[in-house]
Amino acid sequence: MNRKELNPDASPQAAYGARLRSLREARGWTQEDLAAHIGYSSVHISAVETGRKPPTLRFSLSTDKALTLTGGTDSFERQYRKIRQGALLEGFPEYLRYEGQAVEFRLYEIGIIPGLLQTPEYARVLADSAVRRCAIAPEQADERVSFLAERQVALVRDRPPMMFVIMDESCIRRPVGGSAVMSAQLKRLAEFADSPNSLLQIAPYEIGERRTFDLPVNLLTLPDRSVICYTESQAQGNLDRESTSVMPMLTAYHQLQAEALSQAASVAMIEQVRKGMS
User: Fold this and answer.
1) Are 136 and 130 contacting, i.e. CB atoms less than 8 angstroms apart?
2) What are phi and psi of 79, to 5 degrees?
3) Could you give all domains of the chain from N- to C-terminal order, each with its CATH number?
4) The pTM is what?
5) For the segment 145-154, what is each residue's pLDDT rounded down to a tens digit?
């Protein structure tokens, strides 16, 4: 049997695999033995140990249970989450820590519905599309959808944050997943607008050059009333806490609010688009 030498220093994923092999062998278990405990094949375990497959949340939780590491500081779940955060765009893991604390959200999105407002079906279509493009693995698609659901649930609090959302008109015009998925998504937006702690506006195409942002923008107001800004391109994210650069972004957001449709007019446009799908 050929035994591949592992280099835990090669990457966080390699460190995960090497540690998995070490703990498994310390128990005197073969890959087949571990497979019987966690419900994965020995081939899958081999691929994780050698770094050919990335670990997933389900795999990590199952392994923790088998090795009695659940909930500990040395759990594979904890190690997996560090790997996942390392794979996110720069600045986004730190942004997520603030997201759960924010008392006000100001979001602007272009092209797709903001993640925090996506239905599971809409989010699934986007994730599956990434799989077809070979951008992510199928298991990563599952995790992407479940991770988004976790973020959405975190906003359901006794005192929910105020959410201001401006979407470029392209968000509701761009068909995603067919008429049934898109219709349900638009219905979800109308329901969001009806919430007492939300304000939803559409920035119509007709405002032209008066649109103040060319990329998505997230502005969070924290309990101490400080504001942070997170922006990202296709390949890079940026979290900014400096007031000298964040305040102009907040001003630009307010200017965009003034140009965007009122909530009533925005919901009317959403309903019009939805009716056109039937």
Assistant:
1) yes
2) -65, -40
3) 12-86 (1.10.260.40), 89-114+158-275 (3.30.870.10)
4) 0.72
5) 888 888 888 7
